[in-house]
Design goal:
six-stranded mixed sheet, seven-stranded mixed sheet, about 45% helix, Metallo-beta-lactamase, Chain A, binds zinc ion
């Protein structure tokens, strides 16, 4: 699968100043992106700063600075330097657009430098941080699956590991006056339930957090908590209604121009509603979840939109999230209600087929015509006998081919999880032989 040509530019900008070292040390204060931050004057006294994989918005006022987000923990020092190169005014306020690790963990560097900002977030962010503490091991595991980790794979287990907000707000909106100027903080839901976007009406600028990223919305992550597709669409429409001149997005390139912005936001909203409506209609008509996903069609005007390439998430995953939101965990197949283990099922399939080697050769034959089906057969072969060298090799190869054929990071990462199982099986086997 390929991206449309005009999607490539947006896709390239999507992951910011990405560094492997930082990604392996997401919560280390010592590992920044290693790049010089990108700084762009987005409007008078308004800057887009990209210190690493994420963007930050800086609003200068007569009373001090308003900073929207502050990057990963390791981005802190470079961000302080970049901000100080623009202005020596005190840091008046930090707004967290949400609690994610790439947005809300760089504040420590400002605090350590003696700044005393108000840190403002939606009240749901407190619950978000607490959930991080509760599910520390789970999140470290999910993060670890994206690649090797040298440093802490998650934020921590204690309250001291977070720079908590000093002020929270409930409801839809909080208005601030800083330096005689109004800044509106709007609560939204999208990737998270604690999203905040900031509207500076006198400047015509929105700092959108991850509600705008220049790629297809991350509203369907297979391994994470509920995402909010329709509320995301609501937020996009609310932003469009304000007719902004500039958007400083959470990731990716600066967005400018009234018409282009309006077009992007309304298309994104329509795209999300299209997926949501398809899934809800299916649920109401008694369609099984698998068939809801299989019958999802995405019009080319959405799929090929230059600012919505599916480089991270994909529409099918969003539809699954909608199904999960309104339904239970059961996929509707009676045998799946209280199932035999996948290993038992695979062993039965292998026995019926005439052995694991038959499955391996069938999986390999299917690669040319149906990679999706080939993945099932290769998985049966591996699960039927984890120590079969041919089954291991076949499973690894097919997962890698499948991952390479996907455009989005989430599909790639999660398909490659099976390659780790193969590695583990080999290690386990060698250990047993040596014992
Ligand atoms: Zn983000």
């Amino acid at each position: 699968m390929k991206l449309a040509t005009d999607q490539l530019e947006s896709a390239k900008a999507a992951f910011g100043l990405f560094s492997e070292t930082q990604a392996r040390n997401m919560f280390s204060k010592e590992h920044g992106s290693g790049f010089e931050p990108i700084v762009i004057e987005a409007a008078p006294r308004t800057h887009y700063i990209q210190p690493g994989m994420v963007n930050v918005a800086l609003f200068e006022t007569d009373e001090g600075l308003l900073l929207v987000d502050c990057g990963c923990a390791g981005d802190g020092p470079a961000l302080v330097k970049a901000v100080r190169a623009i202005s020596d005014k005190p840091l008046h306020t930090i707004v967290y657009t949400h609690g994610h690790s790439d947005h809300a963990f760089g504040a420590w560097a400002f605090l350590e430098a003696g700044e005393k900002p108000e840190i403002i977030a939606h009240e749901n962010l407190v619950g978000h941080f607490r959930r991080y503490m509760l599910t520390n091991g789970l999140n470290a595991r999910i993060n670890g699956q994206a690649g090797r980790h040298d440093g802490p794979a998650w934020a921590g287990k204690s309250e001291a590991d977070f720079d908590w907000p000093t002020r929270t707000f409930s409801g839809d909106r909080l208005d601030l006056t800083i330096g005689g100027e109004r800044f509106e903080l709007h609560h939204g839901m999208g990737e998270t339930d604690d999203a905040v976007w900031v509207w500076a009406p006198e400047r015509g600028v929105i700092a959108a957090g991850d509600l705008v990223t220049g790629y297809f919305p991350n509203a369907g992550n297979p391994k994470k908590v509920q995402r909010w597709a329709t509320e995301w669409a609501d937020a996009a429409e609310a932003m469009a209604a304000l007719d902004p001149k500039v958007i400083i997005p959470g990731h990716g390139a600066l967005v400018t121009g009234h018409e282009a912005i309006k077009e992007e936001l309304t298309t994104m909203a329509a795209y999300l509603r299209h997926i949501n409506d398809h899934a809800v209609r299916g649920l109401n008509e008694g369609v099984l979840p698998d068939h809801i996903i299989e019958s999802l069609e995405v019009p080319a005007s959405y799929a090929d939109h230059p600012r919505l390439p599916p480089v991270y998430d994909r529409p099918e995953f969003v539809a699954r999230n909608v199904v999960r939101r309104y339904g239970g965990w059961w996929d509707g197949y009676p045998s799946h209600l209280l199932p035999a283990t996948q290993e038992q099922q695979a062993a039965e399939v292998a026995a019926l087929a005439g052995g694991v080697p038959v499955l391996v050769s069938r999986a390999r034959a299917l690669v040319a015509t149906d990679l999706r089906l080939a993945t099932h057969v290769a998985e049966w072969a591996f699960l039927a006998d984890r120590n079969d060298a041919e089954a291991q090799a076949c499973y690894e190869e097919i997962l890698e081919k499948r991952a390479a054929s996907e455009k989005g990071l989430m599909a790639q990462t999660n398909l490659r999880v099976g390659k780790r199982w193969v590695e583990q099986a080999r290690v386990e086997h060698t250990r047993k032989e040596q014992a």
